[in-house]
Amino acid sequence: MSGGANLLYMLSDSLRCARENVMTAVLTAFTIGFSLAIFAIFLFVSINLNGFISTWGDKTHVVVYVKDNVASDPEKFGESLKRVPGVNSFTYISREAALKELRDELKGHESILEGVDTNLLPASFEIKLGSAYRDSDRVRGVADNLKRLPWVDEVQYSREWVEKFASLIRFMELAALVIGVFLAAATVFIVSNTVRLAVYARREEIEIMRLIGASDTYVKVPFFMEGVMQGVVGGLISFAVLAVGRYLMLDNVPQYFRFALDVPFPAPAVFSVLVLSGVLMGVAGSLVTVGRFLKT
Amino acid sequence: MSGGANLLYMLSDSLRCARENVMTAVLTAFTIGFSLAIFAIFLFVSINLNGFISTWGDKTHVVVYVKDNVASDPEKFGESLKRVPGVNSFTYISREAALKELRDELKGHESILEGVDTNLLPASFEIKLGSAYRDSDRVRGVADNLKRLPWVDEVQYSREWVEKFASLIRFMELAALVIGVFLAAATVFIVSNTVRLAVYARREEIEIMRLIGASDTYVKVPFFMEGVMQGVVGGLISFAVLAVGRYLMLDNVPQYFRFALDVPFPAPAVFSVLVLSGVLMGVAGSLVTVGRFLKT
Amino acid sequence: MIQMFHVSKSYEGSAPALSDITLNVPKGEFLFITGPSGAGKSTLLKIMFGSEAPTDGQIIIDGRNYVKIPPADLPGLRRRIGFVFQDFKLLPGKSVFENVALALKVMGVGPGDIKARVNRMLSYVKLQHRANFKPLSLSGGEQQRVAIARALVKDPAIILADEPTGNLDPALSNEIMELFKEVNNRGTTVVVATHDRRLIDLFGRRTVMLEGGRIAGQ
Amino acid sequence: MIQMFHVSKSYEGSAPALSDITLNVPKGEFLFITGPSGAGKSTLLKIMFGSEAPTDGQIIIDGRNYVKIPPADLPGLRRRIGFVFQDFKLLPGKSVFENVALALKVMGVGPGDIKARVNRMLSYVKLQHRANFKPLSLSGGEQQRVAIARALVKDPAIILADEPTGNLDPALSNEIMELFKEVNNRGTTVVVATHDRRLIDLFGRRTVMLEGGRIAGQ
Ligand SMILES: Nc1ncnc2c1ncn2[C@@H]1O[C@H](COP(=O)(O)OP(=O)(O)OP(=O)(O)O)[C@@H](O)[C@H]1O
Ligand SMILES: Nc1ncnc2c1ncn2[C@@H]1O[C@H](COP(=O)(O)OP(=O)(O)OP(=O)(O)O)[C@@H](O)[C@H]1O
Ligand SMILES: [Mg+2]
Ligand SMILES: [Mg+2]
Fold this sequence. Notes:
Strand order of the largest sheet of chain C: 6-7-8-3-9-10
Largest sheet of chain C: 6 strands, mixed
Order of helices and strands of chain A: HHEHEHEHEHHHH
Structural class of chain A: alpha+beta
Number of helices of chain A: 9
Bound molecules: adenosine-5'-triphosphate, magnesium ion
Distance between the termini of chain C: 18 Å
Shape of chain C: globular
Oligomer: heterotetramer
Number of strands of chain C: 10
Distance between the termini of chain A: 28 Å
Order of helices and strands of chain C: EEEHEEHEHHHEHEHEE
Largest sheet of chain A: 4 strands, antiparallel
Strand content of chain A: 5-15%
C-alpha cells in the first residue's frame, strides 16, 4: 500500500471525476467567479470613493486673518502655527495676493477697485487640518487654539461644511459596511449553496464509495480537488471580469474621474486574493457538504 | 377524467413535492432573493446618482450680461430669452443685487466699496439650459444665439465645466451600463444555475414520471409551482433585504445626502417588480431545465 | 395486439442487442420471453413500450405503427401499458401508496377511486402494512411488488413485466404469476421476461427464447 | 469468523426486522440464508457488514466485537468484506472496469496489479467485452455480475452476497455459485442470501431459514 501511488490515483481519479461532472463544475466555477467579481467591484469602488472623499476633505480648511496693527512677519507666524496641534499645512496669502484674488473675481470690472488702498484687505493663512481633526468638535478646538495666538485677528471656518463632511464620511462608511457585509454574506451563501447542490447531486456516489471501504479522506480528495479547480477557475473568471470591465470603461473616463477605476491594490495581489478566495470558497463549500454526508 | 380534479391533484402534489425538497427550495429562494437584491441595490444607487448628477448639471449655467447703455427692461429681455432654443429658465440679477453679492463676498471689509458707483457692475441673467443642451457644442450654439440679441453685452459660460460635466455623464452612463449588464447577466446566470442544479438532482424523478405515462405538462406543473413559490419567496427576501438595509442606514444619512437612499419608484411597484422578476427567473429557470430533460 | 416485423436494435459500441425479430402477440395472449443474461429480453420489452426506438423494422401496437412514436403520443401509449421495470424505478421521495397512486393520477382518476384501487392492489401484493413507507426502506422483494402493483393498478390493456419475480421467493412468485394469469383471463395481454424455468414450466404458456438478440426458439 | 448473539434490529414504524438472532459462521464456511421476502435476509447481511447497527445483541467479526463500530474502523472492516448488494450499488458515472477497480484502489493496490486482477475477474463473470461500458447501459444480469466482480476482486476474507443470482439465468447462476465455491475452497467465508431453492438444493450447504426476522430452521 504505497502512499505515493495512492495519492496519484486519487488525483487522477478526481480529474476524471471532474471531467464527468464537467458541466456542473464549469457552472459552479462561473458562479464563484461572478460572485467574487461582484464583491470585488463593490470593494474597489467603495475604497476609491472613500479615498476620493478623504482627499476632498482637505477642503476642510481654516482661515486665520492677521491683525492689521502688527508687523507682517509670515515666517514667524508660520512657526507659531506649526506648533498648534491639528495644523497640517498652511498657505500664506499676503494683502497683495488677497487684492489680486478680488480683482480676478470682478472680471472685466476691476475699475471698481481703482484707487483702493491695498491695506484695506488683511493678510491671511489658509490652514489644512490633519485628517484626525476633521469633525466639528475638534475643528472648534483647533480654532480656539489658533485664536489665542497674539497676532491672530479672526479665525474663520465653515462649521456647516465640517459637519456635512464628517457626517458624509460616517454615512459612506456605514453604507460600505452594510452593503459590504450583505454582499459578502450573499456571495458566501450563493457559492456554498451552489456547491452544496452540486455535491448533493452526487450523494449516491459518496454513499457507494464509503460502502466499498473508501476512507473519508479518499472520498473527500476528489471533491477537494474539484473545489480547488473550481476556485482557481472562478478566481480567474472574476479577475477577467474586472479587467475586461475596467478596459471597457477606461477610454471613456474623464481624466479627473479616473480615480473611480483605480485598482487600490497591485494587480498580482488582487489576482492572488481573488484566486485564493475562490479556492477557499470552493474547497470549504464542498468539504462541508461532503462532510455532512459522511457523518451519517 | 375531470380537468378540475386533475389540476387540484397536480397542485397538491407539487406542494407535497416542495415540502420534500424543502431545504433545496428554501436555499434556491434565498439565492434568488440575494441576487435580486444585489441587482436592485445597484440599480437604485445608480439611478439616484444619475438623478443627483443631472440636478447638479443644472449648474451648467450661462451668464448673459446686459449692455450698459440700454434701458434696463428685465421683462422684455426675459421674453426674448425665452425664445432662444435651449433656454430652460433664468434668473435676473440687477446691478444692485450684483453689488450686494460682491459685498457679501468681501465679508467684514465692505469699506473697500464705500462710495463705489452701483453702476459699475452690470445687470445679468443666469440661464439654466435644458438637459438636451448640456454638451459643449450645443452650449456654444446657444451662446451664439444669445449673443445675437441686441441688448446682450457679453455671454459667459465655463467651457471647461460643460465639458467635464458632459464627459462625467457619459462615463456614469457607461459605467452603469457595463456594471448593470454584468450584474444582470450574473444574476440570471447564478439563479438559473442554482435552479438547474436543483432540478438536476431530481432528473431521475422526471424520468420515472414520464415512464409511467405522465404528460409533459403533468411533469412540469410541480416544477412550475415550485418556481413560482421560490420566486415569490425570493422576491420577498430581496424586498426585505432592501428595506432592512435602507432602515439600517437611514438614521445615519446626512439630510443633504438622503437622496442616495431614495427609492426611485413607489414601494408597491418595487415590491411587485421584485416578486415578478423572482417568479420569472424561478419559473423560467426550472422550466427550461425540465424541458431539457423532457426533450431526450 | 403487438406485432413486430424484422425489428433490430443496435447500441453504439456493442453487438446488436436485437436482430431481425419478428413476433406476433395476439390480444389476450400470455407470453414468456426467456434467454440468458444479455440476450435482449429487456430491450425487446422496452421497444414494445416505446421507451427505446428500434434501429430497424416495424412495430405495430393496437393497430398503430409505432416505429417512430411522436413524443406527444408517448404518454397515452404508456398509460395503456403496465410495465414492471427490472430495476423497479420507484420514486424514492414518495411513499408506496403514492408511488402506486401516481399511475392513476397521471390518468386523471378521481381521488376516492384511487384510494380504493391502490389499497386493493397493495393487498394483492401483500404490502398493505407498507403503504406509508418510502421505497428505500423496503426489502428488495417488497420494492419489486410495489413496481408490480403500480403496473397492474391501472388495469392496462397490455402488461410488460421484466423479470418480475427476480427478488421474490418461490411461493410469492407463484402468487404474483397467478395475479398476472387472472389479469390475463380478463383479456389483458401479458408479456413476462424471466429466466426462471420453474415458472415457465409451471405455467406452460407460449415461450419465446432469445439468444444473442435473435429468436432461438418458440 | 462471524458470531452473532441475540441480535435484534427494529426499524421505526414496523415490526422488528430481526429478533434474537444467534448465529455462528466459522471461518471457511459456506452458508445459505433463505426465507420469504421481507424475512430479514438483507438486514442480517447488512449487520454483518456494519452498514446497519443492531438495536440489541452482540456481533463479533474476526474476534472483534462490532456492536458499535467506531466510524474510523468502518473502511478497514469493509475492505476485508466483499458485499454483493441486492440493488448492485454501482457508480453510474464510472465504467465497468473502473467500478471493479475502485474496490482495489481504495485499498491502495498498484495500477499494474489492478489492471491484471480486474481483467481476470471480469473474464470470470464473462464481462470482458463490457469493460468500458457504463453500468446503466448494461442488462440487469450484467450489472449484477459487475457487483459480484467488485466483491470478489479484492480476495476478501468474507463474502456476503445478497440475492446474487436474482437477475441471472440458471446456467450463469450455477457458474457464479461455482465461483463462490472456488473462493470458499481457498478459505474465504461465504454467506449467500437467496430465495432460489434450486441453488440451495444443488449446492447442499448449511442453510439458515429466516421467517419474520427469526431463525425458523437451520
Ligand atoms: N443503453 C445501452 N447501451 C449499450 N448497450 C446496451 C444498452 N442497453 C442494453 N445494452 C446491451 O444490449 C444487450 C441486451 O440487453 P438487455 O437488457 O435487453 O438484456 P436482457 O436480456 O434483459 O438481460 P438480463 O437478463 O441480464 O436482464 C446487453 O448486452 C446490453 O449490454
Ligand atoms: N430502512 C428501513 N426502514 C424501515 N423498515 C425497513 C428498513 N429496511 C428494511 N426494513 C424492513 O425490514 C424487513 C426486512 O427487510 P430485509 O431487506 O432484510 O428483507 P429481505 O429478507 O432481504 O427481503 P427480500 O427477499 O425481499 O429482499 C422488511 O419488512 C422491510 O420492510
Ligand atoms: Mg433484462
Ligand atoms: Mg433483501
